[in-house]
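Action item from last week, closing it out:
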Amino acid sequence: MTTAELTRSPFEGALVGWLLDQRPTVERLPVEVLSAGEKAAELRRVQARRAMDAAYEAELVMGLAADRPDTDDPPPGHPGARRRGPGSPVPGTSEFLPDELAAVLNCSRSFATGVLSDAYVLVERMPAVLAACAAGELDWFRARVFADVLGHASGEVIAAVVPAVLPAAAGLSSGRLRRRLMAAAIAADAESAERQRTEAPARAGVRVHPTADGLSALTTELPSPVAAAMWSAIDQAAQLARTGGDDRPIGVLRAEAHAALVLRPWDTSRPAMTGHVTVVAPLAAPGGAARSAGAVGGEAGPSVNGAPITAAHLRELVAQLGALGVQPPSGGSLAVAITGEDGELLAAVTAAELRRLATRGCPAHGGAADCACAIVGPPAAVPGHDPSAAQERFLRLRDRTCRHPGCGRPGAPTPTTSCRTTAVVEPPARTSAACTARTTG
């Protein structure tokens, strides 16, 4: 129970509970009766309400942070202690606070970390900026520019810059506001600004995320002179292709030039590029007839339409893959994910394992037997805590990403990855690893 719950009266508690149970509402004017000028005025009011709500959200976030101190976190060197990756951006709070906020907001951990960082900077370090948002005088987008530019500045720099820039901030574009804040910060403390500039390369990184229609965005953050040199090299290669008669859009030419400069397909001294292919194979019962589930070792195996995955299933699958000419790429691998009609993953095998199992047939009744015995399914449990290679393959194909709400990081069935919010294995006692739990990213 938090301090707030202990200090409020029963009536206050009941009132808070009743208010939280009410459906959120917003005051709205009938759009169809508004003139163009009135619509513009109402749009400005909407922006002000958004700023007010954002400031209220920041206060709520910091209130939740105050309820989650780091006193209960495992100390360094103890089981469960954070070994890598960032903790909470709010000093003195639990490293699991971003995970909890991500579950509350139904977003990724990285997005929740950004929300926490902005809330901490604006609530604790720039209350004047927060007050301007709470009054509807400054939109949240520009408030985040303050947090982005001055988030790592000293208290003395913030105290000098914010009063000087804030009065005119609402009338500046985000670019002009950023430049004015940076200039004011340098004027207030040139030595601190230079220190921040020299420390900034430690935040460099490369990120990739899907966009749409099979495309992805590759973003590289690095020192500005290096970025400018890279852009110049990419643009020169694209312009050269344009001069040579390639009339495709310049953006396409730059993208291809960037890929070629990184992958260097002409350089045969480097390892060739390859890939790992996964074939998702939904199976139906042979002939459409359901059979009674068989068993391996006295336990029911995975079934398709009520029937286990038998040798007949695998022979059909091998024939289908052969007819399609599916082969692993040179230097890569080919995995086959066998699913039921509802999409549930039933088994995950390599192409070699699939052919071997189909050829061997039922180990109990012989390769030629047309029995209903299950011959493939989830990998068996192994002694100890570390998952086997077969379990890793099964879990990665089954979950694809971390199952924490909003997390899109690739699934990794180990307890040492950066997303540590769910257990990998859930045996009754920690003596074996089995594919019965969720992966983390």
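Closing note: The two ends are 31 Å apart (CA to CA).
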